[in-house]
Batch of 4 targets.
Target 1
Amino acid sequence: MNIKTTGLAILGVLATAANANAEMLYDIYAGVGLSVGNMTLHSGDEHPHESSAAYGAMVGIDIPFLRLEGEYSYLNPKSSHSYAHLAMFNAYVKMPTELIKPYLGAGIGSVFKGQINDTYNIKNATAYQAMLGLTFEIPVLPLKFDAEGRVLYAPNAFTIANDDYDILQYDLRLKLRYIF
């Protein structure tokens, strides 16, 4: 088989895979995400902050103007021995454009099972987040890329010396979603 024939065969398979669900009104997807940003711990006038990263996975359903997803993230501030787990339910409203789709999203969930400086345990605390981003579609592949800014807020997430601390995380995220 020569290079031209092999290339045409691969393009044919990709085009078939991408069009398999073209007639459906919705898309089911699973994805992964990576983000970098800053975590701030708030208590009264005290606001220590540090750079952080987050790694996540999500599953959801994408319909013409709305996207709903469940998300798990692992938050990891860089300079201390801290971490937190995050489970969220997100809803997005998106513009119905062709290849690049702007969107606005909000989520509610919980920060759980974490530590700050290897000493202070994170409580199971309610968390809220807001997202603003762009989705980039690849017409011949069942993949979508999201680039978004996120602000996460978890009030009273942990206690140090009878002071409750809030977590404020703001970051830039990249997500890759595979459409089934």
Note: The chain has one helix and nine strands.
Target 2
Amino acid sequence: MNVIFLRNPYPFTLDEYRAIEKTLQDQYQVLSVTYVREYQGNGQLIDHLIINGGNKRTVSDMAFMAEAFHKMAYYRDQLMGTGHYPDFPQLEVVIRDIYAGRPSWAEGAAS
């Protein structure tokens, strides 16, 4: 099992999370994908995708796709002029084995 951590993610809705889970699971034929949002005490958002199944290459490809989903949502907002998230910060993506622990910037986050 692997976890894809996303620092400074786009603030998707719950329905969008579920759509991302289903898309990644169908596209990459893994057993399951669970999308979780965490909030740190300083207000920073940390998302992570828990991937059950797939090899390292598959999970790496899924991380690139997840990054693309976040960038697409930001650019969509900009093109539509909604301004929901005007200053999209640098998205950071890290892949870890579920037993390898969290990136240092994700320590202390609470679901």
Note: Residues 56-80 form the longest helix (25 residues).
Target 3
Amino acid sequence: MNDGESFGDGSNIIYVNGERSDDNSEAGRLIADFWQKDYTKMNNKLLSDRVKHFKKEEGRKEMYSVLDEMKQEGKI
């Protein structure tokens, strides 16, 4: 596939250099959040809330259940 070719499924892919986070822009703060290990220090509340959920017991159970299903289906 060459640059600019369509996947034919309507998807759009944007590549971002995650090494270059700039806290002065919204995109930069989001990139910084993806590198952040402590959800309490994230800028984006929605992302922080989801990370918090999956770090707590109930969220981990949910995640392990999905992973088990994927293993059984041979997806991983």
Note: The radius of gyration is 17 Å.
Target 4
Amino acid sequence: MRIFLIILISLYFASCKKQNNIVISDNTKTFSKFPKEGKVEFKKLVAFKFGNPRQMITIDSILILANYASGQKYYLYNYSLKTGKFSRPYVNRGRGSKQILGLTNIGIYKNSLYLNDFTAKKMLLLNKNNTIKDNSNLDIKEFSFKGNRFYRSILIDGLHAICTGSKKSKYKIQIIDLPTSKIIDEFGRLSNRPKNTPLHIITKASLTQTLLSPNNKKIVLAYIHTDVIEIFDINTKKSISLKGPENFNTEFKNFQNRWFENEETRVAFIGGATTNKYIYLLYSGKNFSDEKAFKGSNIFVYDWEMNPVKKIKLNKEVYQICITDDDKTLYSYDEDTSYIVSATIN
């Protein structure tokens, strides 16, 4: 009986392998090689002894670090590139009001520092200038998403956020009115998907790193399980997409209405940054089951017309990247040495 059950499950998974992949767009261009390739070498900047910063953004001469280490009481630290000093930590980890339980992304919009809490289904807004100057007495605003949980959320003005990764919508992108938590618009319908596959599995299989252009006119979706990037125009709601250079599909298994990886499931884009000139995406390319699947040593660079510009090879595998607005400096964190590192981009 046990052998029969194993055979039955194996046959089921084999059939799922053929059925369960997702077509991101009907109009996707492909490419197989970047026109330029280069290398950069990280140099140690400063030791970070407080945990493991998995996200990093830069504002003028300040690095804001999102600390993901277990057991930490706070999520954020500032590091001044001018003084070489760290701020006191801020934004408490927890389930309470104005605390963060499951941080998935941070960002800056004008004078607001925003944090997306995937677990607690909310967004926190902090005054950017006050946070950088003195974070001992923070003015934190909290907006609940109520019944919605978003993998990524990005503030686009004082009252609205662009969100992705909802398990309740057939659309890739939602625009949320923060005071009311209502969805006021959504677009980017995922029309080509396996039949009889629950929506929450489709959402899991098509998660993206979500980035905004500095002028707030375009949204970049960099897919985690296929080497596809998609750029939406916020005004027209139209998109263009590009696949490559390895050209692999989103592969998964649907077993008992749950998402599972199979032997072909891979990890593509694991982080990124945007400037006025370029889109920078940190790329893994590894199998999902690999121990370091969510670390990468390659940055893929595109322009805003979706043209591949260059591939940058790093001398270290990292979890995330941060690029200065002038496209000259790269920052990250080297987990092996516990140092924040930097490199000059050529």
Note: The two ends are 62 Å apart (CA to CA).
